[in-house]
Amino acid sequence: MLTHVRSLFVALAAFVMVSSRAFAALPAQSQPQINPDDPMQVQVRSNLIKQPLGDQTLAVLDLPDQFLSRVADRIIRESFEQNFRIIVDTQPAIQPASAPGAPASLPSAATAPAPASPKKISPLFWTLPIPPGLVIVLMIVIRRNRRKASL
To answer: Which residues of 25-53 are buried (b: 16+ CB within 10 A; e: fewer)?
Structure first.
């Protein structure tokens, strides 16, 4: 059982390293301008490195600075969008034509509600393929270990 846990940890570490290298290989124009001296960025990065990973922390993986900066930036953006961003509907409510004798200033009960704003995709949408990828890697590691044990 311990070998399976160790194999899973190694597979997870390899997957994180490969994905971090993929982020580093992105073209320069698609990379956001990140200020590494920003105090909020520094705090989020230090908290990110201190996150537990088994009996150690993420600092053991020695992830590239550019990858950590991107993850910290996305965490900050998501926090801002959840806490402070207010989406205002720009379309005016539809006012029905009133009767000829009714005053125009009274609100009508038949006023149509404002249309709902379109559903927004989370900035961390790219994390969806990670769990299936981990399952596939884990299955490969378990099969290799079984083949080695049967030889």
So the answer is: eeeeeeeeeeeeeeeebeebbeebbeeee
pLDDT digits (tens, 9 = 90+) for 84-103: 877 777 776 666 555 555 55
Tokens of 23: 């982020």
- DSSP 8-state secondary structure symbol assigned to residue 101: T
- Assess contact for 39 and 83: CB atoms under 8 A: no
Whether 89 contacts 117, CB under 8 Å:
yes
List residues bridging with 52 in a β-sheet: 57
Q: Are 41 and 69 in contact (CB under 8 A)?
A: yes
First to last CA, the chain: 19
Q: Which has the closest alpha carbon to 107: 89, 95, 116? A: 95
